Amino acid sequence: MVLLVSSVTVQAFTGTYGINYGRIANNILSPDEVVTLLRAAKIKNVRLYDFDHNVIKAFSGTGLELVVGLPNENLRDVSANADHAMDWVKDNVQAYLPGTQIRGIAIGNEVLGGSDEFSGFLLGAVKNVHNALDKLKLSHVVQITTAHSQAVFDDSFPPSSCVFKDNVVQYMKPLLEFFSQIGSPFCLNAYPFLAYMYNKDQIDINYALFLPTEGADDPNTKLHYDNLLDAQIDAAYAALENAGFGKMEVIITETGWASHGDENEAAATASNARTYNYNLRKRLAKMKGTPLRPKNVVKAYVFAIFNENMKPGATSERNFGLFKPDGSISYDIGFHGFESSSAESSLPPLKV
Predict the structure, then answer these.
(1) Closest C-alpha among 303, 46, 298 to residue 193
(2) Considering 65, 110, 214, 339, which one is annotated as catalytic?
(3) Residues 300, 352: contact at Cβ < 8 Å?
(4) 331 burial via Cβ count (<10 Å: 0-12, 13-18, 19+)
(5) Catalytic annotation on 254?
(6) Which keywords annotate this record (predicted)?
(7) pLDDT digits over 91-109, tens only?
(8) pLDDT digit string (tens) for 21-32?
(9) What is the CA radius of gyration of the chain?
(10) pTM of the full predicted structure?
C-alpha cells in the first residue's frame, strides 16, 4: 500500500473546550435546535459518533466545527477496500464541505484494550481514509484521530509508570507511528468519575472534582498533582514517551460526571456533576498544561450534551448530559438552557 503523507498538520480542535453530541435517545431536541443551543452556549467544537446527514446538514453555515465519526462496525469494510473508504469520505465529508466545517474524522471509538473484535481493522481504516482525504486534497482540512479508553494502559499510577498493555502494543505502535507521520494527536477518554468509583478507598473525591486537596506526588518525577484529570493525562504522556512518541499531543475526547446513578453509584449526584463540570470549564479556560507537559495546553470535549435515555448499562450511563432532553440545563455551570430549569446554582459566575 502506498501511503500519501501530508506535510501540513491540521488542527481539528480550536480553543480548549468542546462537547460530545451523543444521540442514543428518542426524546432529544432536533439537530437544528441543538445548533441553537450550542451557539447560545458558545461551544464551538462538537464531536459526533456517526455521520448522520441530517445532523451534518444542520451544522452548515453555523461556524461550529465538527468531528464526524466512522463507527466501529464500519472499520472492517473501510479497512479492506480503499474504494469504499473513498466513497465514504466523498459521501459523508466532501459532500458537506465547506458549508459544514468538518474538521476531523474519528475512526472508531475505544477500539483497542477491550475485545479484539475490531482491533485488526483500525490501522487499515485509518490509512485508507487518510489516503482518500489526501487524493481529494482535504488532508490539510480534516484531521484523522481515534479515541482510546483507559483500558489501553497498565499501571496508570503514579503517572510516570504508565505503559501500554502488552496485548495492545502490537496494534498501538504502528498506529502511533502513522499518527506521528501525519501529525495527529493521541485522543483519550478520561473519566475521574470512573476512576473514583472503582478506587474509592484510594482516591479522595475532592481530588477527582478539582476541589482543594492534598493531591498526589509522583515519586519518580517529583511532580505534584492537585487533580486526577491532570494525572490521567500525564499517565498517557508517560505511556507515549515509553513507546517512543514523546512529542505527541494528548487531547481528551471524553470526560464528564454522571448526575444520577444506581445505588452502588453514590458519587453520581447532580451536585458532584455540577462541581466537576464547572471546575473543568475553569481548568480549561486557564489555557494551561499539565505538570509533565506544562506547554501543552489541555483541551477536552465534555461528555455530553444530553442525558441519553436509550443507552444500555448502569443508570449513570444515561445521565451524563449537561442538558436535559428538552434543552433545559441539568444543573447550572454557566450555560443557559432553552427554558427555565429547576437546577439552581450556588456557584459564582464563571468568567471565561
Answers:
(1) 303
(2) 110
(3) no
(4) buried
(5) yes
(6) Glycosidase, Hydrolase
(7) 999 999 999 999 999 999 9
(8) 999 999 999 999
(9) 20
(10) 0.93
Q: Residue with C-alpha cell 477500539? A: 111
Residue 98 grid cell:
465547506
Which candidate in 254, 263, 339, 344 is catalytic?
254
Burial class (CB in 10 A: 0-12, 13-18, 19+), 350: middle
Give the cell for residue 102: 468538518
> To which H or E segment does residue 146 belong?
strand 143-148
Of 300, 273, 263, 272, residue with least CA distance to 284: 300
Angle between helices 119-135 and 82-92 (to 10 degrees): 60
Query: Distance from CA of residue 50 to its chain's centroid?
Result: 14
Q: Are 48 and 74 in contact (CB under 8 A)?
A: no
Number of H helices, E strands in the chain: 10, 12
- With CA atoms as reference, report the closest residue to 304 among 195, 189, 145, 146: 189
* Amino acid letter, residue 205: I
- What single letter denotes the amino acid at residue 263? E
How does pLDDT run across 103-140, given as a tens digit for each residue? 999 999 999 998 889 999 999 999 999 999 999 999 99
28 touches 58 (CB < 8 A) = no
What DSSP character marks residue 227?
S
Instruction: Count the residues in the chain.
Output: 352
End-to-end CA distance of the chain: 47
- How many C-beta atoms lie closer than 10 Å to residue 133's C-beta? 26
pLDDT digits (tens, 9 = 90+) for 291-339: 999 999 999 999 999 999 999 999 999 999 999 999 999 999 999 888 7
Question: Cell for 139?
Answer: 488532508
d(CA 129, CA 107): 9
Cell of 340: 427555565
Burial status of residue 30 (CB atoms within 10 A of its CB: 0-12, 13-18, 19 or more): exposed
Q: What is the mean pLDDT of the chain?
A: 93
Question: Which three-class secondary structure state does DSSP give residue 338?
Answer: coil
pLDDT of residue 6: 41
